């Protein structure tokens, strides 16, 4: 009986842990790698060094994407916030807006600036 209880508890815990993943939101997973690669290439060019992008929010719809995450140097230190708004034109993703190290939420202004962007990409 005790074993059954522990197994049930373990199953419930695993389901709850899966629901609490580090991703806040994700849609359009087929585009995710392309979008992140485009954003990362621009960030690395701007900073002049390789970095990692730990994406915490990724939303995409109708050839638009919004990224929010943390940039870190290749050693994993010096985390800096990153936000980016991208749009797919033809076969490639283009960065419309990006912010490295913002202290305020940038997407609020971007939402007003790009009213044609689908509502699904905004948090």
What does this structure look like?
36% of the residues lie in helices and 34% in strands. The protein has helices spanning 2-19, 29-47, 107-113, and strands at residues 25-26, 51-61, 64-73, 80-89, 92-100. The radius of gyration is 18 Å and the shape is globular. The chain has 123 residues and is of the alpha+beta class. The protein starts with a helix and ends in a 10-residue tail after the last helix. It has a single domain (23-121), classed as Nuclear Transport Factor 2, Chain: A, CATH 3.10.450. It has a 5-stranded mixed beta sheet. It has 3 helices and 5 strands. It comes from [Mycobacterium] stephanolepidis. This is Lipoprotein.
Which range does the strand content fall in?
25-35%
What is the H-and-E element order?
A: HEHEEEEH
Order of strands in the sheet with the most strands?
Answer: 1-2-3-4-5
Q: Based on the structure given, which CATH architecture is correct?
A: Roll
- End-to-end distance: 45 Å
Helix/strand structural class: alpha+beta
The largest pleated sheet is described as: 5 strands, mixed
Average pLDDT score? 80
- Name the quaternary structure: single chain
> How much helix, percentage-wise, in residues?
25-40%
* Radius of gyration, whole Å: 18 Å
Number of domains: 1
Overall strand count: 5
Low-confidence stretches: 1-28
Shape: globular
- Helical segment tally? 3
Instruction: Kindly provide the name of the CATH class.
Output: Alpha Beta
CATH topology: Nuclear Transport Factor 2, Chain: A
């Amino acid at each position: 009986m005790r074993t059954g209880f522990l197994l049930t508890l373990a199953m419930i815990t695993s389901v709850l842990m899966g629901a609490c993943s580090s991703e806040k939101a994700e849609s359009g997973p087929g585009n995710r790698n392309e979008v992140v690669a485009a954003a990362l290439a621009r960030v690395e060019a701007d900073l002049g060094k390789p970095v990692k992008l730990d994406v915490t929010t990724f939303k995409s719809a109708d050839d638009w994407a919004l990224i929010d995450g943390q940039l870190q140097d290749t050693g994993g230190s010096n985390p800096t916030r990153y936000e980016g708004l991208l749009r797919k034109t033809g076969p490639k993703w283009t960065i419309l807006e990006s912010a490295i190290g913002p202290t305020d939420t940038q997407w609020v202004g971007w939402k007003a600036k790009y009213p044609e962007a689908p509502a699904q990409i905004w948090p």
